[in-house]
Amino acid sequence: MLIVTKVRCEYKENPIGISLVAPRISWQLLSDIRNCVQMAYRIQVSKNADFHTILWDTGTSISSQSIHVQLTGLHLQPKLRYYYRVKVWDQTGAESAWSSRAFFETGLEDPQLWPAQWISAPSVQDSGHCPRLRQIVNIDKAVRSARIYATALGLYELHLNNQRVGDQYFTPGWTSYGKRLQYQTYEVTDMLHKGTNVLGALLGDGWYKGYLGWKNDKEMFGTRTALLLELHIQYEDGTEDQIMSGPGWESSISAIVSSDIYMGETYDARLEREWTDSDGWIPADIIHCRKDIIVAQENVPVLQQEQLKPMALFQTPQGDTVLDMGQNMVGWLRFAIHGSPGQKVELEHAEILDAEGNFYRHNIRSAAQRIVYTLRGDCLEEFKPHFTFQGFRYVKLTGFSGKVQLDHFIGVVLHSNMERTGHFECSSPLVNQLHHNILWGQKGNFLDVPTDCPQRDERLGWTGDAQMFVKTASYLMNTAPFFTKWLRDLKADQTAEGGVPFFIPNLKESFSSGWGETDHSSAAWGDAATICPWTIYEMYGDTLLLQEQYESMKKWVSYIQGQGDNPYLWNTGFHFGDWLALDSEPGSYIGSTDIAYIATAFYAYSVSLTQKAADALGKTEDSEQYHTLHTKVVEAFQNEYVTASGDISISTQTAQVLALRFGLIQGSARERAIRKLEQLLHDAGDHLKTGFVGTPYLNPVLSECGNNNLAYKLLFQKDYPSWLYQVTKGATTVWEHWDGIKEDGSFWSADMNSFNHYAYGAIGDWLYGYVAGIGPDENNPGFKVVHIHPHPGPGLDWAEASIESMYGTILSSWRRTTDHKMTVTITVPANTEGVVILPGAERILLLEGVIPAEQADGVKRIEAVEQGVRLVLGSGTYRFVYPQRHA
Description:
About 20% of the residues lie in helices and about 30% in strands.
């Protein structure tokens, strides 16, 4: 049996509205034999669903490539649907059937040439209400197909014949608006009918015009919301029609009195009108805005992902009526209510209760997170917001008369529609809850951009947080399209010298964060320019994105090299340092690890990643230059920070971790740093003191350097500071501060105390990559070669993780048995190879408890190594049972 499955175009299933650049096709293989390797493939493309006429055919292509196969030579036309299918041959000569039919549909040829015009509500209607824009469309023929292509300044929601168009939210998304603006494509064939049709759009301020940042600033990118839209109709008789935004469109106010991402939404149901109503409409304004920045949708859209029922309704000691969702979530509360005309209800959202059990929202700062709804009063009314989202677990209800019914409230979870790929479970319920918290931190903060937090007056795409978490995020979900879009904005927002803003998309130039002389280019933050594209390359084998971002990587390294007097040390400028580390001076957010030390360490790391990118892209001359530069930076680092006796001169946990993780010391200096790190941890009672910079690498360094048991000890600490301390305090997401809630129940300062802040969730990288032991191979990226090296440790009896890679499911599971044996189960996907280390194993192994491993089908090589036994495996599932060497 050989089956081609999960056929995708640019990571997506049957996408529409893609750009005209040659798309890439990926697929997976299913086989009932071990060691299945694809030897050849064939792709056919047709304009017909039945493939009656073949437009393009690769023929039998001798290749094992099954991801990112580019359809070069296929000259795509705009606004067309292309069907494609794949078949393959394996190493035995077995031939698969054709895959299931799949398709992609191209978008507009050149959006900057759109004949449509930007339209906006006249200033007389610009009173804070979200405007409505409409056009009457008369159709007198049978429709074969219809598409809407739309974008906006601000946010938009389309309606056609009183129905919402599509299931996407917060379109067109947040990009570097002055340089890039996405448009979306909607299939609306079945929504049109003969006769009169009404096409409309609601507009919201969103990130474009609403509040952004923590200084009550508005209108960062513009002062007027606007719509650009084209409806393309093909009729059954072969004729076509185009309805475009421009003259003839009308505007009116809506029932949305105000809507803002931070502040929430105010809605007066008494103002609701049908789109066909004739009252209140006046001609829309034609305005002039750029079109040359418009690009097709890149990221996956924000969708409703799941629904949560409230777990409790209670009265606080202060007398407030509060709903408990049981989970710190991001999205809305959808509710139903029956009341009198003009009755007003309010919903306020918060993450936490105070020590007395009262509703607490001081940490939300100036973000109101409030929904205000005024009833029509004629029936049971239902409401959910349009252009806002909240970060919350608790909701205070005001104005609800009578008995509040729990089943009238549903929490709707929103985030970018990334496929869930990672699953982890172990014998510790507390660690399982930690994994749950990490996952929900990603759900809450990956809403179109990777935000630091989703609730207070910030919600910005901080570069440091993103690079710290990108590896964990890419285990948990398919983040490739998500980061592709974000990294293109990073590249667009880089300064002319190559500096990287603190957050992406960047805010307007007049916004000052208040840190340093510039608002860009802190070490470990700006390094997102190198770390993120390299990580996506490792995890997904995405050479195209690496190629796109390569110049950005080079510019970042060049920027660093140009700072200060010494081109091999970075000892100038503002840096966040080891942000929120526990060894910081009183009154400071920055840890005690010298900021120039951190900056130079990340300088070396970014140079090394840029060299690796040059190698991957075949840029030999560049690679040699970056190799030389890296050597000089490491040498300068050692001269500056390593003493004659071989000690690192900065005596902090983070200092040792960075030097070890980035390979900045060797030999006896490395051994001394390992011992020093161990001593510093013991001096702290086997607790960490690291902040944003050191924490992501701490446990991986310990496991790599022979201190795996100490890494486990850190994991299992339950008192402050530790990951599980948060869990014991009832956390359902990861906190910004190790002591967001102190041991006495009081809070860390309200000015910066998010309870949904994913940065410290980077421990997920260690859970997947070390506890379960699943890792990519940088020389064979995208898990073409799968590394599996579990690291069992004290406190766990078993652990299991799976990753849905581009090639298929990877599984690593280990379990200790009562008779001091270890059972390890491995799954290697078809068309890949596994390099496996069985920890603590001797030379003689049993496969599935019966067959000697040396004789097993699929085992290519086997050898003893220091850590146990190393095997090279072909695809398949294997179960090894063996006595532990140190049992």
